[in-house]
Write a structure and sequence with these properties.
By secondary structure, this protein is of the alpha/beta class. It is about 25% helix and about 20% strand. The protein has an eleven-stranded mixed β-sheet, with helices on both faces. The chain has a four-stranded parallel β-sheet with strand order 12-15-13-14. The longest helix is centred in the C-terminal third of the chain and has 16 residues. It binds threonylcarbamoyladenylate (TXA) and magnesium ion. Magnesium ion (MG) binds next to loops.
Length: about 350
């Protein structure tokens, strides 16, 4: 199959690109287009044929469920149900963060085909803020299933060029609207009612992302799921995308906590993924690096690091070195999401 690439004119808006994408999706096809987090591979969530194409283009195992994108919190009919016991929390969260990078797990509605949720009784719903994605949702008028537009287990794409490297020849269209604003996948949460009267509701973070623990805190008691508990891939309901080899470069990724922990092998070539490129952090001068990339040059800013994260990881992966060493990142705010992706990328092949 030939993969066409259409660019969105950032001044005139998504018009023609959105029309082409919508026409293909209405014909049961799948299209890659940007969300604010990463590029997604979108298809009609109510059509089994379209959903099957998403799984096969990605090479994704059928037991790993997809996220469903909707136009707004009012467009959930048939897609998901909001249990009365978490209704208040749901509305507060969606008012604060939708459209935006927050995905919420809810009981599944009848319109979403079973393959989307891998047979689970729950569905992950999200409302993207990206202009082209919003335009396509409006034109199609149906919920869209859209996982990240990479081959299964690989690095998520944050540019159209990265999507082409992953899916060229496997899908009919890639919509290019530039680099993604956030750079890491949405935060995924499950909602729980208060355990006692007058207690706060509980927000369980299944995947850390741009809506940070700190941002969720005003809305309830935030619990971040321990990935070592939820990473065996046996219970997808408990382990969203926490299969260990997720988000992985082909090059081994090393995560020394301190410079002294790095033990290079004789004759091996290593590249460094530095946080802020500051020699004081102890990594720059530690080794004769084959290449150095800096996530946030200067003072080190997590949003900047997030935007550049997957592109730089992909670049270092393409060098063909024997190992990529990633400096430790701060653990607050967006750092939690970045550390989570590094851990998973480092643990697999
Ligand atoms: O930012 C994002 O969320 C991007 C953009 C394209 O929307 N999408 C994305 O999708 O990251 P994906 O498929 O790569 O990751 C979604 C994760 C999967 O790992 C899946 O296991 C989890 O969400 N998930 C989906 N439905 C679930 C459910 N019902 N219960 C628990 N986890 C679920
Ligand atoms: Mg993914």
């Amino acid at each position: 199959m030939e993969t066409n690439l259409i660019e969105v004119d950032l001044f005139t808006g998504p018009g023609e690109a959105a029309r082409q994408a919508a026409a293909l999706i209405e014909a049961g096809e799948v299209v890659a287009m940007p969300t604010e987090t990463v590029y997604g591979l979108a298809g009609d969530a109510t059509r089994a044929d379209a959903v099957a194409k998403i799984f096969s283009a990605k090479g994704r195992p059928a037991h790993d469920p997809l996220i469903v994108h909707v136009r707004s919190a009012r467009a959930l009919e048939g897609v998901a149900e909001v249990p009365a016991e978490v209704d208040d929390l749901f509305h507060k969260l969606t008012e604060a963060f939708w459209p935006g990078p927050l995905t919420i797990i809810l009981p599944k509605g009848p319109d979403v085909v079973d393959a989307v949720t891998a047979g689970l009784p729950t569905v992950a719903v999200r409302c993207s803020d990206a202009p082209v994605f919003k335009a396509v949702l409006k034109l199609v008028g149906r919920p869209l299933a859209a996982p990240s537009a990479n081959r299964f287990g690989r690095i998520s794409p944050t540019s159209a060029a990265a999507v082409m490297k992953e899916l060229d020849g496997r899908i009919p269209l890639v919509v290019d609207a530039g680099a993604c604003r956030e750079g890491v996948e949405s935060t995924i949460v499950r909602l729980h009612p208060p355990e006692r009267e007058k207690a706060k509701p509980r927000i369980e973070v299944l995947r850390a992302g741009p809506v940070t623990r700190e941002m969720l805190k005003p809305f309830g008691k935030v619990e971040v799921v321990n990935r070592s508990v939820a990473s065996d891939g046996v219970e997808p309901a408990e382990a969203p995308g926490l299969l260990d080899s997720h988000y992985a470069p082909s090059t081994p990724l090393l995560l020394p906590q301190k410079p002294e922990d790095f033990q290079p092998e004789q004759g091996s070539r290593y590249a460094l993924l530095s946080y802020r490129g500051d020699p004081k952090d102890g990594f720059l001068g530690l080794h004769d690096w084959a290449e150095v990339e800096i996530l946030s040059p200067g003072s080190g800013k997590l949003p900047e690091a997030a935007v550049r994260f997957y592109a730089l990881l992909r670049r270092l992966d393409e060098l063909g070195v024997d190992g990529i060493v990633a400096e430790p990142l701060p653990t607050h705010g967006l750092g939690l999401a970045l550390n989570d992706r590094l851990q998973r990328a480092g643990s697999g092949g």
